[in-house]
């Protein structure tokens, strides 16, 4: 069975505490459990003070067969940040704007260049989703159409190669939209003139939607995820409704991270959908879920550091 763990963002103390709470012990320098595996939901890097220790904990677990992991948007961002844009001499696929540099600064400061290159190579090996026996894991959104498109691209380009990154990380590229869905979730454009500020203080004109739920009868306020609190009670635009592909009520339980939720006590989003990102890098806590094969998820199975 699996223990799923959300976004860590360089918080090794909390990671080690959570692993120990879940019954994992160090043997031969690697955390392991006699009967269980961890599934990490991505976003190991950026923001936090202990990025090197996080990678030194997570990567050996995965490489030793004691854990599985999916790629987060911060791992993809790092790959794009360090991959030259073949159509823009001197540029990179992720531009070195002040915003992008600030987001990646903690990683650059904490990882010596040889170590960073090694970890970037490991990031390329991470799957963008896992469809396991009885359970699924993806960083932000399980969408069959997007997964099918990206799976085709990975086959065509031989994995997360430079060719794949060029197709996935440039706006308008053939894989840009489906990769955005998988690693960042679905968004719905707000009506003209409506906006809000996110947790980083950026002005947003789109909400991150409750992609797992049917949009019928929702307004922008009620269809936005918890972190996108917008005082807009207008009915959803037809484009937002048309883009929806609610997660099947009979689908395997699916676990995501990414969304910076905040709560004193974590809870499921739907009977078969749970988010495990409770904002450890912004004063929250590192969150896990002990999955024992149940098709209906329970609030009682969340574990926090």
Written overview of the protein:
- Helix content is 32%, strand content 17%.
- It is of the alpha/beta class and 305 residues long.
- It has 2 domains: 2-183 and 248-304, Metallo-dependent phosphatases (Purple Acid Phosphatase, chain A, domain 2, 4-Layer Sandwich), CATH 3.60.21; 187-243, no CATH class.
- Strands 1, 4, 5, 14, 15 and 16 form a 6-stranded mixed beta sheet that branches. The chain has a 4-stranded mixed beta sheet with strand order 6-7-12-13, with no helix packed on it.
- The radius of gyration is 19 Å and the shape is globular.
- It starts with a strand and ends with a strand.
- The mean pLDDT is 95.
Q: Would you summarize the structure shown here?
A:
The protein has 305 residues and is an alpha/beta fold. The protein is built from ten helices and 16 strands.
Can you lay out the helices and strands and say which pair or pack?
Blueprint: E1 2-5, H1 12-21, E2 25-27, E3 30-32, E4 37-40, H2 51-63, E5 67-69, H3 73-81, H4 98-110, H5 113-125, E6 129-131, E7 136-138, H6 144-157, H7 162-168, H8 176-184, E8 187-189, E9 196-197, E10 203-204, E11 206-208, H9 220-223, H10 238-243, E12 254-256, E13 273-275, E14 277-278, E15 285-291, E16 302-304
Parallel strand pairs: 1-4, 4-5, 7-12, 12-13
Antiparallel strand pairs: 1-15, 2-3, 6-7, 8-11, 9-10, 14-15, 15-16
EC number: 3.6.1.17
Organism: Urbifossiella limnaea
Domain Calcineurin-like phosphoesterase: 4-130
